[in-house]
Amino acid sequence: MIQSTPTFESPTAATHKTPDFVLKTRDDIRDSLQASSSHHRNNLLKECVKAAAKNSDFERYITAPKPGAYDRAIIYTDPAFYFSLMMLTWAPGAKTPIHGHNSYGFVGICSGKIAVECFERVNLGDSQFSIVPNYSCISNAGDVADAHSGAEGIHRLSNPTTRQAVSLHLYRMDLSEDPAAINDVYEERRLSSL
Ligand SMILES: [Fe+2]
Questions:
Q1: How far is the CA of 147 from the centre of ligand 1 (A)?
Q2: Partner residues linked to 78 by β-bridges
Q3: Residue 163: which residues within 8 A CB-CB, separation 6 or more?
Q4: How far apart are CA 175 and CA 161, in angstroms?
Q5: Quick one: which of 61, 69, 84, 129 could link to 5 by a disulfide (CB 3.0–4.6 Å)?
Q6: What percent of the chain lies above the pLDDT cut of 70?
Q7: For this UniProt entry, which residues form the secretion signal (predicted)?
Q8: Centroid of ligand 1 to alpha carbon of 30 (angstroms)
Q9: DSSP H or E stretch at residue 120
Q10: Rounded to the nearest whole angstrom, what is the distance from the C-alpha of residue 5 to the centroid of ligand 1?
């Protein structure tokens, strides 16, 4: 979901075999996507993310970001079912820009704490708008949050603690070409609209 320090090379490059525990999660996600209603589907997908976030097998995707930064590691992308799974490792003080997403998803906290700030887009006319804070909370290990698409889901994540944090992200996009394609960075858009 996030810009900043995409320095990590995907461990699912063609020369690597996808681990069985990733394939199991992939199959669970594919099954969940067959649900008869979006409400049921979302509940099932949340359970998939929750289970994966507490599965220590996924810890191999934890990276070592630079001080104050975060790294994004693509775990799996599924061009057929159109979803991607990635892990973010957050150094103390790491923070995303204010952004929205180009598709929906779910964020599970594996370890540490992540601050979530949500914003509302207020249209001012003539293509101008303002971004107004409207909610904030701290997500702890085991929590899974919805990441809504479009203006409904404008947010910023950060690690406000002195310890590393790790999060697992499921997005309903094939991000194999560009992991940052999920993001719609409002700080950049706002600048470009002025
Ligand atoms: Fe995000």
A1: 7
A2: 83
A3: 92, 112
A4: 29
A5: 69
A6: 88
A7: none
A8: 22
A9: strand 113-125
A10: 15
Domain assignments of the chain as residue spans, ordered by start: 2-186
The token duo for 36 is 């008869």
Distance 100 CA to ligand 1 centre (A): 6
Report how far ligand 1's centroid is from the alpha carbon of 21 (Å).
25
3-state secondary structure of 160: coil
The rounded Å distance from CA 1 to ligand 1 centre is: 5
CA 116–ligand 1 middle distance (angstroms): 9
Q: What class is the 2-186 domain?
A: mainly beta
Q: Are 33 and 60 in contact (CB under 8 A)?
A: no
What is residue 115's predicted lDDT score, i.e. its pLDDT?
A: 98
Determine the Cα–Cα distance for residues 58 and 61; give it in Å rounded to an integer.
Answer: 6
**Chain centroid to CA 71: how far?**
12
pLDDT in tens, 13-26: 444 689 999 999 99
pTM over cut 0.85: yes
C-alpha 16 – ligand 1 centre gap (Å): 28
